[in-house]
């Protein structure tokens, strides 16, 4: 069973507690990413997350497997929302248990950092002014152009 | 895909996500191409659609990340991956 999954519906971390509970665990570290009402100086009203799910689940599972290889942890799981989210909504949750807290904190940090960098998920922000934009994909008028791609 | 190629072309299926899906105006398409690598295929589609300037785009074939020099074969499922923004 994959240690990474997508959810099209709102969820609470409590729902996934059984995926990280373990009798050898003496500590539980988690990260929750929430939708905030601003980004780069602009008011944000809501977000849309889109995912390439087949590859995303594989890559997310690989990331958690890397965390297991790097840190002495007991269990780990990550869930990322897709769809339309409002301010304050839970967008991503990472839960890690370990015998000792250092490994739980470190693995939790590793997983969320790698998920943000590697899992094929895209975020569209809808702004207070009515416009919208795909984060990391827009040629911004206020900054340097994203530059030509490839290959 | 049962159609026999007479010009050396192959049939591929493309799925578009996020900024590319909106730019192209559809989520997927099937097409015939004479491209031999995924990089050539991207170039062919860029000439057709004039993709927006993006940062580092990645590519997946049959649901696995691949290098831009990877071959594209008949029946492949190809996804071009714009810069991601999870979390």
How would you describe this protein?
The complex is a heterodimer of chains A (151) and B (87). By secondary structure, chain A is α+β, with helices and mostly antiparallel strands. Chain A has a single domain (4-130), classed as Molybdopterin biosynthesis MoaE subunit (Aldehyde Oxidoreductase, domain 3, Alpha-Beta Complex). Chain A is 26% helix and 37% strand. Chain A is built from three helices and nine strands, in the order βαβββαβββαββ. Chain A has helices at 17-20, 53-70, 101-118, and strands at residues 4-7, 27-34, 38-39, 42-51, 73-81, 83-86, 90-98, 121-127, 132-134. In chain A, the strands form two sheets. In chain A, strands 3, 4, 6, 8 and 9 form a five-stranded antiparallel beta sheet that branches. Chain A has a four-stranded mixed beta sheet with strand order 1-5-7-2. In chain A, a hairpin with a 2-residue loop joins strand 3 and strand 4. Chain A is elongated and about 50 Å long. Chain B is of the alpha+beta class and 87 residues long. Chain B has one domain (10-81): Beta-grasp domain (Ubiquitin-like (UB roll)), CATH 3.10.20. In chain B, strands 2-1-5-3-4 form a five-stranded mixed beta sheet, covered by helices on one side. Chain B starts with 9 loop residues before the first strand and ends in a 6-residue tail after the last strand. Chain A binds chain B through residues 33, 49-52, 54-55, 58-59, 80, 91-92, 112, 115-124, 134-139, 145-151, and chain B through 15, 17-19, 21-22, 38-39, 42-43, 51-57, 59-60, 63-65, 68-69, 79, 81-87.
């Amino acid at each position: 069973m994959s240690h990474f999954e997508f959810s099209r519906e709102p969820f609470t971390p409590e729902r996934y507690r059984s995926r990280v509970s373990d009798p050898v665990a003496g500590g539980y570290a988690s990260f929750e990413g929430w939708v905030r009402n601003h980004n780069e100086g602009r008011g944000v009203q809501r977000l849309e997350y889109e995912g390439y799910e087949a590859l995303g689940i594989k890559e997310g599972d690989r990331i958690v497997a890397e965390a297991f290889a790097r840190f002495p942890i007991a269990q780990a799981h990550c869930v990322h929302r897709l769809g339309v989210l409002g301010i304050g909504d839970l967008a991503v949750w990472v839960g890690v248990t370990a015998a000792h807290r250092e490994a739980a904190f470190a693995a939790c940090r590793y997983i969320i950092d790698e998920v943000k960098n590697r899992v094929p998920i895209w975020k569209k922000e809808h702004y207070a002014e009515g416009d919208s934009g795909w984060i990391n994909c827009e040629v911004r008028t206020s900054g340097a152009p994203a530059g030509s791609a490839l290959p | 895909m049962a159609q026999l190629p007479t010009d050396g072309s192959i049939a591929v299926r493309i799925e578009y996500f996020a900024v590319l899906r909106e730019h192209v105006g559809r989520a997927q398409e099937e097409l015939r191409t004479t491209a031999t690598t995924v990089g050539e295929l991207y170039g062919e589609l860029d000439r057709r659609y004039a993709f927006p300037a993006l940062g580092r785009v990645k590519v997946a074939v049959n649901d696995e990340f691949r290098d831009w020099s990877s071959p594209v074969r008949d029946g492949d499922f190809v996804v071009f991956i714009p810069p991601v923004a999870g979390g």
